[in-house]
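seq:
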Amino acid sequence: MRSAKPLKQLKLSVPAQEAPVSNFLTASGTFQDGDLLLNQKGLRLLSEEKQSQPSETKEFDSEFSLADFETIRVIGKGSGGVVQLVRHKWTGQLYALKAIQMNIQETIRKQIVQELKINQGSQSPYIVVCHHSLYHNGIISLVLEYMDRGSLTDVVKQVKTILEPYLAVVCKQVLQGLVHLHNERRVIHRDIKPSNLLVNQKGEVKITDFGVSAVASSMGQRDTFVGTYNYMAPERINGKSYDYKSDIWSLGMVILECAIGSFPYSRPDQEEGNLSFYELLEAIVDQPAPSAPPDQFSPEFCSFISSCIQKDPQKRLSAVELLSHPFIKKFENQDIDFGILVATLEAPTNFPR
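struct:
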């Protein structure tokens, strides 16, 4: 039996959140939060209209109607609602329909609004496409691109570990998605984890779920404590200001986990069981950063992981810099098809959320 070990007090700073200001439902049946308007015809951002000429005022988009879809099955559940696999009745195209009941907590409602705004402006082949969003009868619905092989979580469950050539292909796609978010959208994702990196049978890997993402300040920094703590950078756990480099720590943790087949932080002396919440936070803050075993992986891979998982964020490379890392370049001229691997896997029947 493992003897009880007293944990030293861990400083966990949770900054106060700004009080939300929202008029959620107008008399016309339109959901409104700040400059965001959403009804059964689609979404509109008033801030975009102010930047256009009066004659260019945008109308609600009516490309989709909920009546056009038939449900196949539920593929995910979360605190805010469910995700269903649906088929468009007239085209046969498959989509993932994320439905959120709006009689939920204010914090979740604000996350949904943030996700809507980021989805509205993200145009990248490395970001899961939000084709349309609707509000009707107290439910917000997002019509999302369907990624038919689930997430990296599903892939690792079946293959146990992912080999370096495939990891290089995965890394390059995720990094290109982060370059889009960081450099073009000025967005910190804040929840990069295996279940938020979706995969399709063509081998495409795309970033999803922007509910806890944040637009960085003019200095590119934030100081709020949200996201999945397993992959959270030390500076965020300590309540310090953080920037885009916090996503890089998370990416390094994800890729290392995919390589070794288990979460990088574990109990000492090969003891069984997962670390508790506070044990994990203490390990991330106080223990040396995880690294790739040099006897199992190439020097390029070990260097890549080290370039991501640095406790000092100033020592981490940016997404742009990592795209030129020797590990990524090593496999660029080789015909590595991640789609061949994932096409042989069983499609998940229920996606993690």
